[in-house]
Write a structure and sequence with these properties.
The chain is of the alpha+beta class and 158 residues long. It contains 5 helices and 6 strands. The protein has a 6-stranded mixed beta sheet. Helix 4 links the parallel strand 3 and strand 4.
Length: 158
């Protein structure tokens, strides 16, 4: 987690507050543990074959009644450009359809984050549109793209 919090790209494109509050990682972990117990959140570590940490795959807004979920992913700088994020999102998407039985999966991606948009495309997501000047975090407004997958969408091709 520390390596992710030291990465300016992670800070720019995620909801991690800037400056990072003291004990943020611990508080984040506790929030996800509580969400796991409640069924409202889930987090998975992304690791390589040797067990080295590469990032996180997240279901940070599970709506069981509405059968929808918002997913996210973040990979370490060293893991970028190797297909790690795409593979993680595909696995996370499959998990959400299978384990949560959702009817809609959504991603929110900054309109400036071209790399993440490529990941979404490769994982079979469809761009629905752009929410202009939406509040992102701490007085920061961004244009945010909405991407989605439905169970009826074609599976991504390799």
């Amino acid at each position: 987690m520390a390596q992710l919090l030291d990465d300016p790209g992670v800070l720019e494109y995620t909801m991690v507050p800037v400056p990072i509050p003291e004990r943020f990682a611990r508080t984040w972990y506790e929030r996800y543990e509580e969400g796991r117990r409640e069924g409202s959140r889930e987090a998975f570590a992304i690791v390589d074959q040797a067990g080295a940490f590469l990032g996180l795959a997240l279901a940070f807004a599970i709506d069981r009644e509405g059968r929808e979920v918002e997913l996210g992913y973040v990979v370490s700088r060293a893991a970028r450009g190797r297909g790690v994020a795409t593979q993680a999102l595909r696995l996370l998407t499959d998990w959400a359809f299978r384990e949560l039985d959702v009817l809609r999966i959504e991603l929110g991606i900054s309109a400036d984050n071209v790399a993440s948009q490529r990941v979404a495309t490769r994982a079979g997501y469809v761009l629905e549109g752009t929410r202009r000047s939406t509040h992102f975090k701490q007085r920061i407004r961004q244009d945010m793209q909405v991407w989605s997958r439905l169970p009826s969408d074609a599976a991504p091709r390799d």
